[in-house]
Amino acid sequence: MMRLLPRRRRPTTDAAAEPVLTAPVARADRFTFQDLVVEATADIGSRPARLVMTVIGTVLGVGALVATIGFSQTAATQIQRQFDAVRGTQVVVAPGSAQSQSGDAVATARLPWDAAERVERLVGVEAATTIAELGTDGEDAITAVPVNDPAAPAVASPRLVAAGPALLDVLGGEFVTGRMFDGGHEARGDRVVVLGERAAERLGVNRVDSQPSVFIGDTAYAVMGIYAGLQSRGELSDAVVMPVGTARVERALAAPGDLQIRILPGTGAQVGTQAALTLLPDGPDRLEVSAPSSGSELGSNVQADVNVIFLILGGIVLLAGALGIANVTMLNVSERVPEIGLRRALGATRRQIGAQFVVESVVIGLLGGLVGAALAVLGIVVFALAQQWTPVVDGLVAVGGIVLGALVGLGAGWFPARRASSIEPVSALRGGG
Amino acid sequence: MSLIELRDVTRSFPGVPEVQALKAVNLTVEAGDYVSIVGPSGSGKSTMLNLLGLLDRPTVGEYRIDGVVTGVLDDDQRARVRAQWIGFVFQAFHLMPRRTVLENVMMPMLYSGVPREEREGRARAVLDRVGLGHRMGFHPPTLSGGERQRVAVARAVVSTPRILLADEPTGNLDEATSAEVMELFDDLRADGLTLVVITHDLAVAERAERRVRISDGRISELA
After folding, report:
1. pLDDT tens figures, A150-170
2. What CATH superfamily classification does B4-222 receive?
3. Could you tell me where the beta strands, DSSP code E, fall in A239-396?
């Protein structure tokens, strides 16, 4: 128990003259902390209206603080979740690059041709494919019909890309019509392509049952399907995709390009490290791996942005709450002067009287903190449910709110308690009561 | 050895001019005495009671209880002496309105160190003794004045003090209820309790075998 008053120094009398008037009291029969709490709390509920008015400031203050922190946690988690849902499942492995003397970027490594098969064996990998951009020179324009029209304006061709059969499985997306090429086309180097929806629109292809073709330069490729709805690498919706095997034969593809992997959520860091080792055991550093980190940086950034204004406001309300408790406790002390005098006459010490009022105001503060934290948590849950979000509140924040309430009570009760303990029983017992 | 001994006790209150409420008072009370202190208001009666009850300290002089000089006791020690030696009865009762009669009577035992397991039994016994065994669960505001004062007496004696100090115990009571309380005092006296009763009511004062008159801060023993 906090000592409210410095213990008075005993008068300096020698041991022989020490007065022995009072009988020693067994420890169990003294005024214990338990007695103190019982005495301090016995009358708290006797005036409910006043109690409510006393507590309300603390309820609002603690509630505002807990709610502010809780809302920002909930919102941060929500934002994090929305971003992570897509971003958290994609890993890209690219060969490292360096600046050459002439200023061009040159690759310092090359992925193996079987990169996708290798990483698919790793735990956490759902699907993988290599994606390589194929350059199209002016003559190799991609057209639906080869027309030699010197007067026609130059039109930018769709991208030409070489990828594995798992492309859509990795990027998410579906076929509007037709189907994906498969391992057989890849192995044979068949002249087949699939089109992204925008590329298909530009080329005027909208169905595959008529077995349309597109021409890359002068070479015809059968269109097997048209896909749409990519969830990642949206630029590929404006691409013409051919199997890697075909690209090696027809377009002299020298390297498989980048490796795109779809992973299970939360395995990003591990797959990132292991993929590099699997692909280039002799020099994993030469690959550039971009993998989602397990703890989202985004989330912590948002959390750091917890609305400072609201915290300050909460603090001010709490301060007002403390003043409210101090005020009412002060009023209680003045009203209960006769009781204080009586207790002192009955043998209560100054410290016991002071402690009684401190405990009373701590309990009131605790009550305020409890109600405030509970209301705040309830508010967050209701709000989150209304938004169909997941409510997230750190349990420690709620507990911290309750403790804060008790501290407010302690701070607020200290001064009135000092006053109560300094009341002289003589003056207290004088008037009526 | 006397139970209470005041030697040349003066109590003065600072101010301009300085007020001497008690002037060089000498008083000895033996164990088992029944003393009444009478005097007009402003004569120093209350100051006397506060000094005797260790609620106040003499400015000059010495106050001994059972031979021990109380002047050397610190605040906490005086509180303990009050708890174990002295019972108070006030004119205004000073009962706690929101606690039951039984709770009111049990309160002093919190501070006086009566063994916990005895407390409730003692309180019930004392309440039976003052004739309020049927009112234990009542709250003071629902009782009559005489009943309230009897509760206050029960509270004053529950810790078995040696001295009972009563300050105008019948001041708020009518004649009939005064008589109840005075009979109770006679009973307690018969049990060996030392009583000091301050009053301005001569009928009450007459019950005591020793009557001390206080006037303008000086006391004189009446035959």
Report:
1. 676 666 778 889 999 988 888
2. P-loop containing nucleotide triphosphate hydrolases (3.40.50.300)
3. 239-243, 258-263, 287-290
